[in-house]
Amino acid sequence: MDRYQFEGYISDYIENSLSIAKRKEFEKYLAEHPESKEQVEALRSTILQLKNLSTVKTSDEFMVKLQQRVAKQRYAVPVRQENRMPMIFGFTPLTAGMMSLVVLAIVFVGYELMPSRSSNPIAIPPQITTNNVMPAPVNSAPMISASTESAIAEAQEDSSVVEEDLQHISPQLEEKINYVKTQ
Amino acid sequence: MTDKHRYTDEELIARFQKGDENAYTELVNRYRDRLMTFVYRFVSDMEQAEDIVQDALVKVYTHKHYYKEVAKFSTWVYTIAGNLAKTELRKRKRRQTSSLSTLGLDDKDYELPSVELETGEYIQGEYTEKKIQEAIQLLPLHFRTVIILRDIQELSYEEISNIVSVPLGTVKSRINRARLQLQEALKEYK
Hints:
Chain A is mainly alpha-helical. Among the domains of chain A are: 3-51, no CATH class; 148-183. Chain A is 67% helix and 0% strand. Chain A has helices spanning 3-14, 20-32, 34-51, 62-82, 93-113, 146-182. In chain A, helix 1 (3-14) packs across helix 3 and helix 2 (20-32) packs across helix 3. Chain A is flat and about 115 Å long. Chain B is an all-alpha fold and 190 residues long. Chain B folds into two domains: 1-106, RNA polymerase sigma factor, region 2, helix turn helix motif (Rna Polymerase Sigma Factor, Chain: A); 119-190, Arc Repressor Mutant, subunit A. In chain B, helix 2 (21-43) crosses helix 6 (141-152), helix 3 (46-62) packs across helix 4 and helix 6 (141-152) crosses helix 8 (168-189). The termini of chain B are far apart. The A-B interface holds A 7-8, 10-12, 39, 42-43, 46-47, 49-51, 53-59, 62-63, 65-66, 69-70, 73, 77 and B 28, 32-33, 36-37, 40-41, 46, 49-50, 53-54, 57-58, 61-62, 128-129, 132-133, 147, 151-152, 154, 172-173, 175-176, 179-180, 182-183, 186-187.
Protein backbone atom coordinates (compact mmCIF):
# COMPACT_ATOMS: atom_id res chain seq x y z
CA MET A 1 0.00 0.00 0.00
CA ASP A 2 1.28 3.46 -0.89
CA ARG A 3 0.39 6.92 0.45
CA TYR A 4 -2.24 7.50 -2.26
CA GLN A 5 -4.03 4.21 -1.48
CA PHE A 6 -3.78 4.91 2.25
CA GLU A 7 -5.62 8.23 1.86
CA GLY A 8 -8.24 6.56 -0.35
CA TYR A 9 -9.10 3.98 2.36
CA ILE A 10 -8.89 6.26 5.41
CA SER A 11 -12.66 6.94 5.69
CA ASP A 12 -13.53 3.29 5.10
CA TYR A 13 -11.10 2.34 7.89
CA ILE A 14 -12.65 4.83 10.33
CA GLU A 15 -16.16 3.64 9.44
CA ASN A 16 -15.17 -0.05 9.72
CA SER A 17 -16.20 -0.82 6.16
CA LEU A 18 -12.92 -2.30 4.89
CA SER A 19 -12.65 -6.00 4.11
CA ILE A 20 -10.49 -8.04 6.53
CA ALA A 21 -7.65 -8.33 4.01
CA LYS A 22 -7.67 -4.60 3.25
CA ARG A 23 -7.88 -3.76 6.95
CA LYS A 24 -4.79 -5.85 7.69
CA GLU A 25 -2.95 -4.17 4.83
CA PHE A 26 -4.03 -0.75 6.13
CA GLU A 27 -2.92 -1.50 9.68
CA LYS A 28 0.42 -2.77 8.42
CA TYR A 29 0.89 0.59 6.68
CA LEU A 30 -0.06 2.40 9.91
CA ALA A 31 2.53 0.41 11.87
CA GLU A 32 5.20 1.28 9.32
CA HIS A 33 4.28 4.99 9.13
CA PRO A 34 3.62 6.53 12.58
CA GLU A 35 2.67 9.93 11.04
CA SER A 36 -0.24 8.28 9.18
CA LYS A 37 -1.57 6.99 12.53
CA GLU A 38 -1.72 10.62 13.70
CA GLN A 39 -3.58 11.55 10.51
CA VAL A 40 -6.20 8.85 11.12
CA GLU A 41 -6.76 10.11 14.66
CA ALA A 42 -6.99 13.73 13.47
CA LEU A 43 -9.56 12.78 10.84
CA ARG A 44 -11.57 10.80 13.39
CA SER A 45 -11.60 13.90 15.60
CA THR A 46 -12.70 16.16 12.68
CA ILE A 47 -15.63 13.85 11.90
CA LEU A 48 -16.63 13.89 15.56
CA GLN A 49 -16.48 17.70 15.64
CA LEU A 50 -18.76 17.85 12.59
CA LYS A 51 -21.27 15.49 14.22
CA ASN A 52 -21.28 17.64 17.36
CA LEU A 53 -21.99 20.93 15.58
CA SER A 54 -25.09 22.55 17.02
CA THR A 55 -28.46 22.28 15.25
CA VAL A 56 -29.45 25.54 13.59
CA LYS A 57 -33.03 26.45 14.40
CA THR A 58 -35.48 28.49 12.35
CA SER A 59 -36.74 31.78 13.78
CA ASP A 60 -39.96 32.13 15.78
CA GLU A 61 -41.72 33.83 12.86
CA PHE A 62 -40.89 30.98 10.50
CA MET A 63 -44.30 29.27 10.61
CA VAL A 64 -46.24 32.54 10.31
CA LYS A 65 -44.21 33.62 7.27
CA LEU A 66 -44.55 30.18 5.69
CA GLN A 67 -48.32 30.12 6.22
CA GLN A 68 -48.59 33.55 4.58
CA ARG A 69 -46.58 32.40 1.57
CA VAL A 70 -48.55 29.16 1.29
CA ALA A 71 -51.83 31.11 1.46
CA LYS A 72 -50.61 33.35 -1.37
CA GLN A 73 -49.76 30.30 -3.47
CA ARG A 74 -53.09 28.66 -2.68
CA TYR A 75 -54.98 31.55 -4.31
CA ALA A 76 -52.45 32.35 -7.00
CA VAL A 77 -52.32 28.93 -8.63
CA PRO A 78 -56.03 28.56 -9.69
CA VAL A 79 -56.17 32.17 -11.04
CA ARG A 80 -53.17 31.47 -13.26
CA GLN A 81 -54.78 28.31 -14.56
CA GLU A 82 -58.07 30.03 -15.40
CA ASN A 83 -56.36 32.82 -17.32
CA ARG A 84 -54.05 30.50 -19.20
CA MET A 85 -54.13 31.36 -22.93
CA PRO A 86 -53.96 28.82 -25.72
CA MET A 87 -50.35 28.71 -26.97
CA ILE A 88 -49.09 28.58 -30.57
CA PHE A 89 -45.70 26.80 -30.70
CA GLY A 90 -45.05 27.96 -27.13
CA PHE A 91 -45.89 31.63 -27.85
CA THR A 92 -48.99 33.61 -26.87
CA PRO A 93 -51.30 34.42 -29.83
CA LEU A 94 -50.29 38.11 -29.66
CA THR A 95 -46.54 37.38 -29.76
CA ALA A 96 -47.00 34.76 -32.49
CA GLY A 97 -49.07 37.23 -34.59
CA MET A 98 -46.49 40.01 -34.22
CA MET A 99 -43.64 37.66 -35.12
CA SER A 100 -45.52 36.51 -38.26
CA LEU A 101 -46.03 40.16 -39.31
CA VAL A 102 -42.32 40.92 -38.86
CA VAL A 103 -41.36 37.88 -40.97
CA LEU A 104 -43.82 38.88 -43.72
CA ALA A 105 -42.48 42.45 -43.69
CA ILE A 106 -38.89 41.22 -44.06
CA VAL A 107 -39.87 38.96 -47.00
CA PHE A 108 -41.79 41.79 -48.72
CA VAL A 109 -38.99 44.37 -48.34
CA GLY A 110 -36.42 41.82 -49.50
CA TYR A 111 -38.49 41.05 -52.61
CA GLU A 112 -38.86 44.76 -53.43
CA LEU A 113 -35.12 45.39 -53.13
CA MET A 114 -34.19 42.52 -55.47
CA PRO A 115 -33.05 43.78 -58.98
CA SER A 116 -35.54 42.96 -61.82
CA ARG A 117 -34.35 40.35 -64.33
CA SER A 118 -33.95 41.43 -68.03
CA SER A 119 -33.63 39.20 -71.13
CA ASN A 120 -29.98 40.26 -71.77
CA PRO A 121 -28.04 40.45 -68.52
CA ILE A 122 -24.93 41.98 -70.16
CA ALA A 123 -26.69 44.58 -72.31
CA ILE A 124 -24.90 47.93 -72.69
CA PRO A 125 -26.61 50.58 -70.63
CA PRO A 126 -28.44 53.04 -72.95
CA GLN A 127 -26.24 56.04 -72.04
CA ILE A 128 -23.05 54.37 -73.49
CA THR A 129 -23.44 54.10 -77.32
CA THR A 130 -21.11 54.64 -80.29
CA ASN A 131 -22.90 57.90 -81.06
CA ASN A 132 -22.13 59.63 -77.83
CA VAL A 133 -18.45 58.60 -77.48
CA MET A 134 -16.32 61.79 -77.43
CA PRO A 135 -13.76 62.05 -80.32
CA ALA A 136 -10.07 62.48 -79.45
CA PRO A 137 -8.81 66.09 -79.72
CA VAL A 138 -7.05 66.82 -83.06
CA ASN A 139 -4.08 68.77 -81.71
CA SER A 140 -3.47 66.67 -78.66
CA ALA A 141 0.09 65.82 -77.52
CA PRO A 142 1.71 62.53 -78.86
CA MET A 143 0.76 59.55 -76.67
CA ILE A 144 4.28 57.93 -76.82
CA SER A 145 7.28 59.85 -75.54
CA ALA A 146 10.81 59.84 -77.15
CA SER A 147 12.31 57.67 -74.41
CA THR A 148 9.62 55.02 -74.93
CA GLU A 149 10.33 54.99 -78.67
CA SER A 150 14.07 54.39 -78.11
CA ALA A 151 13.25 51.56 -75.67
CA ILE A 152 11.03 49.92 -78.29
CA ALA A 153 13.82 50.18 -80.92
CA GLU A 154 16.33 48.53 -78.53
CA ALA A 155 13.90 45.69 -77.82
CA GLN A 156 13.37 45.09 -81.56
CA GLU A 157 17.20 44.91 -82.08
CA ASP A 158 17.53 42.39 -79.24
CA SER A 159 14.81 40.19 -80.66
CA SER A 160 16.52 40.14 -84.12
CA VAL A 161 19.82 39.02 -82.46
CA VAL A 162 17.97 36.24 -80.64
CA GLU A 163 16.35 35.10 -83.91
CA GLU A 164 19.80 34.91 -85.59
CA ASP A 165 21.16 32.81 -82.70
CA LEU A 166 18.25 30.45 -82.98
CA GLN A 167 18.88 29.97 -86.68
CA HIS A 168 22.49 28.90 -85.84
CA ILE A 169 21.43 26.60 -83.06
CA SER A 170 18.57 24.80 -84.86
CA PRO A 171 20.77 22.92 -87.46
CA GLN A 172 22.98 21.68 -84.61
CA LEU A 173 19.89 20.49 -82.67
CA GLU A 174 18.50 18.70 -85.70
CA GLU A 175 21.81 16.89 -86.11
CA LYS A 176 21.71 15.73 -82.46
CA ILE A 177 18.10 14.55 -82.70
CA ASN A 178 18.90 12.54 -85.85
CA TYR A 179 21.93 10.99 -84.11
CA VAL A 180 19.77 9.95 -81.09
CA LYS A 181 17.11 8.48 -83.41
CA THR A 182 19.67 6.38 -85.28
CA GLN A 183 21.10 5.07 -81.99
CA MET B 1 -44.59 4.37 18.56
CA THR B 2 -45.31 7.91 19.82
CA ASP B 3 -48.26 9.88 18.53
CA LYS B 4 -45.87 12.35 16.91
CA HIS B 5 -44.43 9.67 14.64
CA ARG B 6 -47.58 7.67 14.15
CA TYR B 7 -47.16 8.22 10.42
CA THR B 8 -44.01 7.92 8.36
CA ASP B 9 -42.93 10.82 6.16
CA GLU B 10 -44.14 8.91 3.10
CA GLU B 11 -47.54 8.32 4.65
CA LEU B 12 -47.82 12.00 5.56
CA ILE B 13 -47.01 13.21 2.04
CA ALA B 14 -49.52 10.68 0.67
CA ARG B 15 -52.20 12.11 3.00
CA PHE B 16 -51.21 15.65 1.97
CA GLN B 17 -51.50 14.70 -1.71
CA LYS B 18 -55.06 13.65 -0.93
CA GLY B 19 -55.77 17.09 0.58
CA ASP B 20 -54.90 16.74 4.29
CA GLU B 21 -53.27 20.09 5.15
CA ASN B 22 -52.44 18.92 8.70
CA ALA B 23 -50.10 16.34 7.18
CA TYR B 24 -48.20 19.19 5.49
CA THR B 25 -47.87 21.04 8.80
CA GLU B 26 -46.53 17.88 10.45
CA LEU B 27 -43.94 17.45 7.67
CA VAL B 28 -42.89 21.11 8.04
CA ASN B 29 -42.42 20.63 11.79
CA ARG B 30 -40.34 17.50 11.22
CA TYR B 31 -38.06 19.06 8.61
CA ARG B 32 -37.76 22.80 9.28
CA ASP B 33 -34.74 22.58 11.64
CA ARG B 34 -33.05 19.75 9.77
CA LEU B 35 -33.27 21.68 6.52
CA MET B 36 -32.22 24.89 8.28
CA THR B 37 -29.06 23.20 9.61
CA PHE B 38 -28.27 21.75 6.18
CA VAL B 39 -28.82 25.02 4.28
CA TYR B 40 -27.11 27.22 6.88
CA ARG B 41 -23.99 25.02 6.85
CA PHE B 42 -24.09 25.38 3.08
CA VAL B 43 -24.64 29.14 2.60
CA SER B 44 -23.41 30.41 5.98
CA ASP B 45 -26.05 33.14 6.31
CA MET B 46 -29.02 32.77 8.69
CA GLU B 47 -31.42 35.05 6.83
CA GLN B 48 -30.70 33.55 3.43
CA ALA B 49 -30.83 30.03 4.85
CA GLU B 50 -34.29 30.65 6.29
CA ASP B 51 -35.53 32.09 2.99
CA ILE B 52 -34.22 29.03 1.14
CA VAL B 53 -35.88 26.63 3.61
CA GLN B 54 -39.15 28.55 3.16
CA ASP B 55 -38.80 28.35 -0.62
CA ALA B 56 -38.19 24.61 -0.38
CA LEU B 57 -41.23 24.02 1.82
CA VAL B 58 -43.43 26.21 -0.39
CA LYS B 59 -42.27 24.08 -3.34
CA VAL B 60 -43.27 20.95 -1.42
CA TYR B 61 -46.71 22.54 -1.05
CA THR B 62 -47.15 23.66 -4.67
CA HIS B 63 -45.50 20.64 -6.28
CA LYS B 64 -46.82 17.94 -3.93
CA HIS B 65 -47.96 15.78 -6.86
CA TYR B 66 -44.40 15.67 -8.25
CA TYR B 67 -43.39 13.42 -5.35
CA LYS B 68 -43.56 9.73 -6.26
CA GLU B 69 -43.27 7.08 -3.59
CA VAL B 70 -40.31 5.39 -5.30
CA ALA B 71 -37.97 7.64 -3.27
CA LYS B 72 -37.92 8.61 0.39
CA PHE B 73 -39.57 11.93 1.23
CA SER B 74 -36.37 13.11 2.91
CA THR B 75 -34.39 12.50 -0.32
CA TRP B 76 -36.89 14.61 -2.26
CA VAL B 77 -36.98 17.50 0.19
CA TYR B 78 -33.18 17.58 0.62
CA THR B 79 -32.77 17.60 -3.17
CA ILE B 80 -35.10 20.61 -3.46
CA ALA B 81 -33.33 22.50 -0.64
CA GLY B 82 -29.86 21.63 -1.96
CA ASN B 83 -30.69 22.84 -5.48
CA LEU B 84 -32.12 26.10 -4.14
CA ALA B 85 -29.03 26.62 -1.96
CA LYS B 86 -26.70 26.05 -4.92
CA THR B 87 -28.70 28.50 -7.04
CA GLU B 88 -28.43 31.09 -4.25
CA LEU B 89 -24.66 30.61 -4.01
CA ARG B 90 -24.27 31.04 -7.78
CA LYS B 91 -26.30 34.27 -7.63
CA ARG B 92 -24.15 35.48 -4.72
CA LYS B 93 -20.97 34.69 -6.65
CA ARG B 94 -22.24 36.67 -9.67
CA ARG B 95 -23.16 39.63 -7.42
CA GLN B 96 -19.71 39.56 -5.79
CA THR B 97 -17.96 39.42 -9.19
CA SER B 98 -19.99 42.30 -10.59
CA SER B 99 -19.58 44.49 -7.49
CA LEU B 100 -15.80 43.91 -7.48
CA SER B 101 -15.52 44.62 -11.20
CA THR B 102 -17.46 47.91 -10.86
CA LEU B 103 -15.11 49.13 -8.12
CA GLY B 104 -12.07 49.12 -10.37
CA LEU B 105 -8.42 48.69 -9.49
CA ASP B 106 -8.00 51.95 -7.58
CA ASP B 107 -10.87 51.32 -5.17
CA LYS B 108 -9.48 49.66 -2.07
CA ASP B 109 -12.41 50.11 0.32
CA TYR B 110 -14.02 46.66 -0.11
CA GLU B 111 -13.54 43.70 2.19
CA LEU B 112 -13.55 40.02 1.40
CA PRO B 113 -14.67 37.57 4.12
CA SER B 114 -11.87 37.19 6.61
CA VAL B 115 -10.58 33.83 7.80
CA GLU B 116 -8.05 35.36 10.18
CA LEU B 117 -7.87 34.20 13.77
CA GLU B 118 -9.79 36.41 16.20
CA THR B 119 -8.31 35.27 19.51
CA GLY B 120 -10.38 35.89 22.62
CA GLU B 121 -13.53 36.81 20.73
CA TYR B 122 -15.35 33.57 21.36
CA ILE B 123 -15.32 30.94 24.00
CA GLN B 124 -13.68 27.71 22.87
CA GLY B 125 -16.81 25.85 21.65
CA GLU B 126 -18.14 28.76 19.64
CA TYR B 127 -14.68 29.52 18.34
CA THR B 128 -14.23 25.94 17.08
CA GLU B 129 -17.69 25.94 15.51
CA LYS B 130 -16.98 29.21 13.72
CA LYS B 131 -13.70 27.88 12.37
CA ILE B 132 -15.31 24.64 11.18
CA GLN B 133 -18.05 26.66 9.48
CA GLU B 134 -15.39 28.78 7.75
CA ALA B 135 -13.43 25.71 6.72
CA ILE B 136 -16.60 24.15 5.22
CA GLN B 137 -17.08 27.30 3.13
CA LEU B 138 -13.63 26.77 1.62
CA LEU B 139 -14.67 23.41 0.17
CA PRO B 140 -15.89 23.15 -3.43
CA LEU B 141 -19.71 22.86 -3.68
CA HIS B 142 -19.77 19.16 -4.59
CA PHE B 143 -17.58 18.32 -1.56
CA ARG B 144 -19.49 20.68 0.72
CA THR B 145 -22.86 19.07 -0.10
CA VAL B 146 -21.79 15.51 0.62
CA ILE B 147 -19.83 16.20 3.79
CA ILE B 148 -22.74 18.16 5.32
CA LEU B 149 -25.20 15.42 4.41
CA ARG B 150 -22.96 12.66 5.76
CA ASP B 151 -21.19 14.07 8.82
CA ILE B 152 -23.65 16.74 10.00
CA GLN B 153 -27.01 15.36 8.83
CA GLU B 154 -25.83 11.76 9.25
CA LEU B 155 -27.58 10.44 6.14
CA SER B 156 -26.64 7.09 4.62
CA TYR B 157 -24.35 6.88 1.60
CA GLU B 158 -27.26 5.49 -0.48
CA GLU B 159 -29.51 8.41 0.38
CA ILE B 160 -26.76 10.95 -0.39
CA SER B 161 -26.17 9.19 -3.70
CA ASN B 162 -29.88 9.67 -4.54
CA ILE B 163 -29.91 13.31 -3.41
CA VAL B 164 -26.87 14.41 -5.41
CA SER B 165 -27.60 11.99 -8.30
CA VAL B 166 -24.12 10.50 -8.52
CA PRO B 167 -23.03 6.84 -8.12
CA LEU B 168 -22.37 5.44 -4.65
CA GLY B 169 -18.64 4.99 -5.29
CA THR B 170 -18.29 8.63 -6.33
CA VAL B 171 -20.13 9.74 -3.19
CA LYS B 172 -17.77 7.71 -0.97
CA SER B 173 -14.72 9.05 -2.72
CA ARG B 174 -16.01 12.66 -2.53
CA ILE B 175 -16.74 12.34 1.19
CA ASN B 176 -13.26 10.96 1.84
CA ARG B 177 -11.56 13.73 -0.13
CA ALA B 178 -13.80 16.39 1.45
CA ARG B 179 -12.83 15.18 4.94
CA LEU B 180 -9.13 15.27 4.07
CA GLN B 181 -9.44 18.80 2.64
CA LEU B 182 -11.41 19.96 5.67
CA GLN B 183 -8.85 18.46 8.02
CA GLU B 184 -6.09 20.23 6.11
CA ALA B 185 -7.94 23.57 6.37
CA LEU B 186 -8.57 23.09 10.10
CA LYS B 187 -4.92 22.23 10.71
CA GLU B 188 -4.04 25.84 9.85
CA TYR B 189 -6.34 27.15 12.59
CA LYS B 190 -4.81 24.98 15.31
